[in-house]
Structures are given as C-alpha cells and as structure tokens.
C-alpha cells in the first residue's frame, strides 16, 4: 500500500475494517510519501517505510481522478510492489480505499497455483483497459521471476507517465500483462467481481449492495473506486455502514473543519468536504490524540 497525508482517514478506516472482522494486518507494509508520514504511522503502531530516493510526493489527496497529485502517487504505486517482489516476497497490493470482510490472503493460499497474478475486475469495459479490465487497486502476485518481470515491465512503461501520455498506471499494467502473456506465457486471472467487489458494483448493482449492507452477502473485500475524488469515497462508505472509525475521531475532524472555515472565510460551507478533506486533513489530526495504537481510533463493535 502507498499513501500520503491526504489519505489518512482512508488508511485508518481500512485498518479498522480489518479489526472489526478479526483480521490480523500487522504484516501490512505501508510505503509512505514522506519521512514525516512514515514516522507518524510507526508512532501509532503501523509498519511504514520511506526512502529519500523515492523523491518528493504531494501531501494532499488528489482533487480528482487523473490530476497531477493522482499522477505523481501512481509512480510510487509502481515502485513499491516491485521492490518487495524483487526481494522474493509474494505481494498483495491494494489502495487505501478498501475494506476487508474476510482475509483475502486465505483465498490466495488455496487459489490455482498455475496463476502468476490475480487482479480485481475493474468493471469498466473501455478499450484502454482491455483485454483484462484489471483494477490496479487490488492485486496479488506469487513469488518468482514472472512477477518480477511484470513489475519491471510496468516500471519501464512508466515512461508514459513522464511523457504525459496517460495518467493511469492501470492502463500501463494492461499493456504489461498482454506483453508478458505473449512473451513468457505469464498467466493472469481476473477475480470474481461479486467476491472482490469494485466500485462499479456500487453504481450498477444496487440490489447486490443492499444484500452486502444487510449482511446477506459477504464478499472478501470491497474497493471504493469509480469515484471522482475522496469526498465520494467517504460518503459511500458511510452510506454502506463501512465506516469503522470512532465517532470521537469524527468529531475531532469536525472541529478541525470548523477551524479551517474560520481561517478561510472565502470557502463556502457547502464546499467544505471538497476543500477541507482534499487539502487540510493531516496526520497530526490523528497523532494529536496521543494514542499508542491505531486500534484505539476504531469504533467499537
């Protein structure tokens, strides 16, 4: 997982979702966008890594899909899994805007051993994501040279980022998958969208969403993609009762929001979610609680 300061609450909510469903995430490694962020994460009991050779990254969340902040963070998302795969690890990579209901690692332990890489189904069927339509926000690679070559190929094709040809590393990954299938016979499997749910289902299958909310269907994970910005992610998570952070923490954010409005009178209250959540939500809001563990910031069962 890779995060910057602007994704603080999404990251915490993911950890709290795991806690709610009794899933151990202590081995989850977070690649932070700055040394200060990594230190803050470690301060509340998370495993975080940063190296100055990564370069400099934005501290706020992206204002919209595909903007410059989104683009810059994509580069770190390519680098992080490559490092771990090159070290010989199997890699389960995901974005911060997921919640877990069951431990997906158990699924991959018994999955087809002939498959090199598993991807969540994005749900989109646009030409640029063909032929796999893989979602780059959740995927698993086994150990081995095929996985290393996939990440290396993705890094090389990262030149498309630098040239501004595309702002989506999801698009770049489709090209790498197709190329390596033809050259080395790499095997890719796209996961069942009803078991590993993407945001497409939230918008296109309301009956299924109701069954999940009512506890009648329990997928492995749900990914709140298919959103314009973080504002919609937070809204949809709350509507689905997938917001697992303590109400006391939410109140603290409300107070911080009011303080932000006072300092920025030009911001209309109706625009607060977009302006405040995108640019002003810092890890100091969390660490100022002076807690020793992120678990203390989660809502009770």
UniProtKB/TrEMBL annotation:
Highest taxon of source: Eukaryota
Residue ranges occupied by any Nucleotide-diphospho-sugar transferase domain in the UniProt entry: 26-237
Any GO molecular function: glycosyltransferase activity
Signal peptide coordinates: none
Gene Ontology annotations for the cellular component aspect, listed alphabetically: Golgi apparatus
Family recorded in the similarity comment: Belongs to the glycosyltransferase 77 family.
Protein name: Nucleotide-diphospho-sugar transferase domain-containing protein
Organism of provenance: Pinguiococcus pyrenoidosus
């Amino acid at each position: 997982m890779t995060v910057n300061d602007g994704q603080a609450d999404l990251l915490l909510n993911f950890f709290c979702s795991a806690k709610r469903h009794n899933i151990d995430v202590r081995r989850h490694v977070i690649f932070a966008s700055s040394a200060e962020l990594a230190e803050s994460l470690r301060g509340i009991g998370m495993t975080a890594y940063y190296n100055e050779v990564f370069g400099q990254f934005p501290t706020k969340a992206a204002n919209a899909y595909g903007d410059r902040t989104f683009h810059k963070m994509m580069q770190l998302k390519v680098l992080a899994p490559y490092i771990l795969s090159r070290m010989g690890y199997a890699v389960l990579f995901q974005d911060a805007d997921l919640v877990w209901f069951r431990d997906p690692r158990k699924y991959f332990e018994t999955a087809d051993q002939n498959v090199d890489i598993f991807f969540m189904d994005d749900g989109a069927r646009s030409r640029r994501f063909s032929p796999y339509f893989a979602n780059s926000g959740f995927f698993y690679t086994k150990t081995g040279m095929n996985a290393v070559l996939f990440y290396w190929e993705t890094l090389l094709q990262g030149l498309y980022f630098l040239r501004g040809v595309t702002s989506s590393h999801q698009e770049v990954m489709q090209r790498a998958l197709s190329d390596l299938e033809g050259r080395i016979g790499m095997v890719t499997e796209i996961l069942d969208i009803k078991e590993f749910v993407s945001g497409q289902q939230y918008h296109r299958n309301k009956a299924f969403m109701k069954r999940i909310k009512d506890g009648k269907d329990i997928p492995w994970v749900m990914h709140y993609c298919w959103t314009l910005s973080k504002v919609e992610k937070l809204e949809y998570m709350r509507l689905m009762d997938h917001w697992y952070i303590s109400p006391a923490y939410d109140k603290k954010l409300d107070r911080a929001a009011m303080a932000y409005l006072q300092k920025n009178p030009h911001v209309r209250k109706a625009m607060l979610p977009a302006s405040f959540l995108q640019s002003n939500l810092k890890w100091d809001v969390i660490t100022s609680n002076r807690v020793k563990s992120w678990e203390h910031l989660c809502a009770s069962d």
